Fold Flagellar assembly protein FliH.
Amino acid sequence: MSKIIKSRTGVQSEIKAKVIEIKDISCLQPVEEIDETDPLEQEKKLILEKFQQQAHEIIQRAEQEALLIKNQTLEEKQAWNEEKALLIEEAKAIGFQQGLTEGQQQGFAQYNGQLDMVNQMTADLKGEYVRYIESAEKVILDLGMKAAERILHETIEEQPEKFLNIVKEALKEVKEHREVHILVHPTQYSFVIQCKDELDAIFPSNQQCYVYADDELSEFQCLIETSHGRVDASVDSQLTELKVKLMEFVEGETI
């Protein structure tokens, strides 16, 4: 303990004994200061400030131009997007219209094709119908005439006066002729002779008719001969003539 204290006392005595000298600062070299009154320094300062001002203006102008270009680019981009949208819509409209037109044309073509086919089918069916009707009418007419012929024959057999009426109608067409010959089948001869007075009454008083039997004739056939020709007054011939006229009428109706 006494040693530590002694040591500290010795150090303090040494510090007190050492004197620090203060040097005179006037002997040091002075620091170089800028003389603001120097024209050269002033010019340098003005040039520096001018450059700084120009640089600031250039930076501002560049920033303004950059902003202007940016805004212009955005506007052009927006305009292009709008134009592109319009072009897309226009293309869609054109495509839709073209598709609609093509669809309409295709639909019209299909419709016209189907209409032509229907018209052709109608014409074919009409032709078939006409041919069928013509055939059917001819068949029906033929059957009807045969039925009429059979009915007339049966009627004449049962009622001989019917045959006499046919002869009378034929004689009216030739009553102006002076001499008339009546030819009938032998089965009808006796009946016609019995009724000759009725036949003579058709003619004027100065005219006569003569009745002859002809076995070459059919049972209900009657021929009337005059100086101007022959008239077929038979039932069969009248039916045939009627059939021809009816057939002409039927064919005229179906044309």
Notes: Residues 21 and 27 are 15 Å apart (CA to CA). The chain has a mean pLDDT of 71. The chain is about 70% helix and 10% strand. The domain at 131-254 is CATH 3.30.2320.30 (hypothetical protein PF0899 fold).
